[in-house]
Amino acid sequence: MFEFLSNHMRDAQGRLDSTRGLLCGLGAGVAEAVVVVCPMETIKVKFIHDQTSPHPKYKGFFHGVREIVREQGLKGTYQGLTATVLKQGSNQAIRFFVMTSLRNWYRGDNPNKPMNPLITGVFGAIAGAASVFGNTPLDVIKTRMQGLEAHKYRNTWDCGLQILRKEGLKAFYKGTVPRLGRVCLDVAIVFIIYDEVVKLLNKVWKTD
């Protein structure tokens, strides 16, 4: 999705500036949230909460999904959609903004300058770290909205207000350190693999 959008927003020299990179990342994040992330994350969070409860009711993945759909309908797999769109949209907007900025800085006046996988990995890790610090509060709200106790909140805004009132500002940054380690590695690896696959495919046919 990012490549599709960026191919329509590059200038005559084939460059993508940071602002357009941010907008393309935002579009990719929103599409990702609606099509993939929201249903998968909702199911994952429900499973985690169920398995840590005193009396788990889901016997396995398929049984759990079947029970969620039977009890709550398809909308049961789309809880916290607004929070997920906000979280995932801002997530990818930050990552691609940072990554595009770093790539443009590294390449200077030559947009076709090759990048070493190690440099791509370092830039990816920096982009991942920026996204963690930038949107962990939205991730916390999203997780609460998708849990088994989501009924306590009227909507995304109410969830955020209740967390702030009852638990304070620090609650929005719970799990930042473990998330930082995972996300930095995750984003670095994804960008390295993507760039290397594109290089490989470009030997067979043009993919950019």
From TrEMBL:
Q: Which catalytic reaction applies to this protein?
A: maleate(in) + citrate(out) = maleate(out) + citrate(in); D-threo-isocitrate(in) + citrate(out) = D-threo-isocitrate(out) + citrate(in); cis-aconitate(in) + citrate(out) = cis-aconitate(out) + citrate(in); citrate(out) + (S)-malate(in) = citrate(in) + (S)-malate(out)
Q: Does the keyword Transport apply?
A: yes
Q: Which terms are listed as keywords in the entry?
A: Membrane, Mitochondrion, Repeat, Transmembrane, Transmembrane helix, Transport
Listed under GO cellular component are: mitochondrial membrane
- Topological type in the membrane: Multi-pass membrane protein
Tell me which Gene3D superfamilies the record gives.
Mitochondrial carrier domain
Q: Where in the cell is it found?
A: Mitochondrion membrane
Q: What does this protein do?
A: Mitochondrial electroneutral antiporter that exports citrate from the mitochondria into the cytosol in exchange for malate. Also able to mediate the exchange of citrate for isocitrate, phosphoenolpyruvate, cis-aconitate and to a lesser extent trans-aconitate, maleate and succinate. In the cytoplasm, citrate plays important roles in fatty acid and sterol synthesis, regulation of glycolysis, protein acetylation, and other physiopathological processes.
Q: Which PANTHER family match?
A: SUCCINATE/FUMARATE MITOCHONDRIAL TRANSPORTER-RELATED, TRICARBOXYLATE TRANSPORT PROTEIN, MITOCHONDRIAL
This chain belongs to the protein called: Tricarboxylate transport protein, mitochondrial
- Record lineage: Eukaryota, Metazoa, Chordata, Craniata, Vertebrata
The protein's gene is named SLC25A1
